[in-house]
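Hello,

Our lab assistant flagged a job as stuck in the queue for most of the afternoon. It eventually completed. Since we weren't sure the result was trustworthy after the delay, we are filing this so someone can double-check. Below is the sequence as submitted and the structure that was eventually returned. Let us know if re-running is recommended.
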Amino acid sequence: GREYGEWGGVLRRGRGQGKMGWVRGRAGAVDRGARDGFEKLSFDGYADAVRAGNALATHELEAAWLGTALGQDIYTQQGMPNGHYNHLDLLNCVRMAGSIPEFIKESNLSGGIVHACHEKGIPMVLTGSIRDDGPLPEVYADVYAGASAMRDQIREATTVICLATTLHAIATGNMTPSFRVTTGDMVRPVFFYSVDISEFALGKLRDRGSLSCRTLVTNVQDFVGRLGQKL
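-- returned structure --
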């Protein structure tokens, strides 16, 4: 409880002193509490930008549309009959709609991470990889264009929090300065945090040079859900 109280303080200070950027892995899409928790954080002003890959947005939209993520029910954790087709159906439907906002409108979706970003106007940069299926229309297929879009977000961030994503966390760490010069030539740190169940992933991030990053080894679904409750 005390540790989550401290994290609550981190977010309150971050909201009041600058812009908060989140880097999201797909683990946050497969649990109801994690989806609801981040939705609450977004609507309460604790998110100014989101960076993720094709997987997070695809599974998240599948959860909002069909109640599953990769065919697994996000409420009961049970695999659904022929559920392995769900994310492919989702990808095809979004691509036929032409964009994520159009799909949300046509399907009358509500709830979750992508919907919260859409409703609040929170910019979401989705950067793809060679292994992506689909991908969603908004996903950057050109890695250099995607990296440039990520840098544009990071230039404005004063607090960065990475959740359960090794590759995107390392990429963000490579782009994030340890300090920023503000109005009046004041120097302030850029607060950088990473949360992951894998200690290896956090160690890899720090080994790449993100020495100012503070890390926490825990289940990201539990982390987001409890943080949402604290705030």
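-- support follow-up --
The delay was a queue issue, not a problem with the job. The result is valid. The two ends are 12 Å apart (CA to CA). The beta strands are 20-24, 49-52, 68-69, 72-73, 124-126, 159-163, 179-182, 186-189, 191-196, 214-217.
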